[in-house]
Amino acid sequence: MANGGQGVGHFRKNQVKRFGTVAYIWRMKTLKMRKPALFSFEECLWFLNRNYDDCLHHIEPGQLSKAICINGENIAFTLRADEQHLLVDLNHGGGDNFPEAALIQYIMEWFDLDRDITPFYGLLEKNKTLGYMAKDFAGFRLISIHDLYEALCWSIIGQQINLTFAYTLKRRMVEQYGQKLEVNGQSLYIFPRPEVLQYATVADLRKQQFSERKAEYLLLVSKMFAEGSISQEMVRQCASYEAQVALLTAIRGIGIWTANYALMKTLKQLQAIPYGDVGLLNALLNHALIKDKKDTVGIDKLFKRFKGWESYLVFYLWRSLSSKS
């Protein structure tokens, strides 16, 4: 797939400081990205929504808007698609020297667009139970979380609670400690930086209904990232996947499930399986692929058939839990 972008038009930034928020008047520029084979923007967009209240993007029919920080510059963009392209409308950011290539790369990684998933579909189609997924979920991609710190925080937030409440807690934390951009009256949030969240207290997070233990974990991880005792690059440079898991699980509050979730979502470690995940176990039971939630033999037997694509299988099993109807 071509990963270059071509711009149409120009924009200028107008900003007004207002109660700690930066408000911007929309000046748009559009980049084009050719869609790869076996990619469905509609399928990915639907999964990102699923009627959950995710404060880090705003979804409308056929498009989503998001704010991110690239090279120290906060930007907002809207992503939509035509038959052959993804269209990226830059709503704010970067001025004349905006690094378009960096944004294109961000989107490529977000939707895993530079990966040929044909071999995975071949494995699906050979499986009598799961073969329907190749057609019903055609073009669905492993949607990433770009920042390891964010992925770890999100997985800590989601430990042992349902997704609806997890998204509620996430919104409270992001609105309090993250950054907000207002683009044409629409509020778009950027996940808090560890340098900011490390200065919150357990009492502060308890007021937002975090458990005391989760608050402690979040503050510890924030402090470690802020001080540089752990980093995304440090984890990336580990000699093996097993070494990455060991490095992460040495941190208080990060177990096997949390480590594998973060490695799957951020570093695209395709062998990462979030063992013990309730949604994964329910999907396996729904397909009669395991006898019960303790059937580790059945789980291992299935994933051995998808060696090298384990994380994609997890994602497709999660997808099977939700129906568009």
From TrEMBL:
Keyword Hydrolase among record annotations: yes
EC number from the UniProt entry: 3.2.2.21
Catalytic reactions of this protein: Hydrolysis of alkylated DNA, releasing 3-methyladenine, 3-methylguanine, 7-methylguanine and 7-methyladenine
UniProt keyword annotations, A-Z: DNA damage, DNA repair, Hydrolase
GO BP terms, alphabetized: base-excision repair, AP site formation; DNA alkylation repair; nucleotide-excision repair
GO terms assigned for molecular function: alkylated DNA binding; DNA-3-methyladenine glycosylase activity; DNA-7-methylguanine glycosylase activity; oxidized purine nucleobase lesion DNA N-glycosylase activity
Listed GO CC annotations: cytoplasm; protein-DNA complex
Family affiliation: Belongs to the alkylbase DNA glycosidase AlkA family.
Protein name: DNA-3-methyladenine glycosylase II
Organism: Paraflavitalea soli
